[in-house]
# Entry
Amino acid sequence: MKQEENAAWSIFGYLLSGLLFWGGAGWALDHWLNTRYFLLGGLLLGTGASIYVIWLRFGRQ
Amino acid sequence: MRTLHLLRADGEGFVPPSTNDFNLPPVFGNNEYTTKPILLVFLSVILISVFFILASRKAAIVPSKLQFAGESIYGFVRNDLARDNIGHEFMRFVPYLFTLFTFILTNNIFGIVPLLQFPAMSHVSFPYVLAIFTFITFHYIGIRKQGVVKYFKDIMFMPGVPKAAYILLTPLELATFFIVRPLTLSLRLFANMFAGHLLLLVFILGGDHLLKGVIGLKLISPFAFAFGIGLTFFEFMVQCLQAYIFTLLTALYIAGALADEH
# Structure
């Protein structure tokens, strides 16, 4: 099946939603608490979480 | 700066193409439902129907050229997109995927057909509607196949993960399935068609404007037109690719919803 080959397209979606969701949460915290490091933390956390999901979904067999 | 002055001295300056070039006035009177994109969408439906009815009407063992063309497109969608991605249940989804592919492809290619020259998908509402169809389709199929509880459980809680990780992963999965997927699906198609049309406008309107300038600018003008023609062929590639990707992703999402465990 070509499904594995085409997984690349879904991987892009996961990376994007990780950045958007946790980056967005960090940005909101920064906005309310008047800080400036939660955005960076959120983006890193989101990237890490997406890579973890991608590994779970596509990496392990 | 100097060229700018020369351009200005010639009359009114060059008005670069902008988003205003996408808001076309109604064709018939003041009726807002007769703008060019809407008429093009109707035209595409008529063209697709006529083409495939003619191609399939006198089906013969030794196919005519028309039948061969129609069957190649159908075979491509059925075999390469549906069967290879969805698996044994693929036949149910071929009509939807085939409609999607031909509809998007025809409307995209209208962007470079002389006189028509407008891709309807560069208006974001058209890709939105198509993405909503795909969104409803794959969630409905998943819920029908696995039941509401199991379907949502599969999305939210992946097996074999420490419980604490769900705090991190569950919102991410939900965002992917319910926001990012339909959004990227529609915006990818929209942005490609929008940017492509704008690019062609820049080079061809720019070349036209240079031609009206002084002799030095006239000499540059052919290069702008040459680029415009080159980019038209490039656009053709992008238009086919985007129709393919939209259909491919729909097939992949359906396949994901049908799969028992991820």
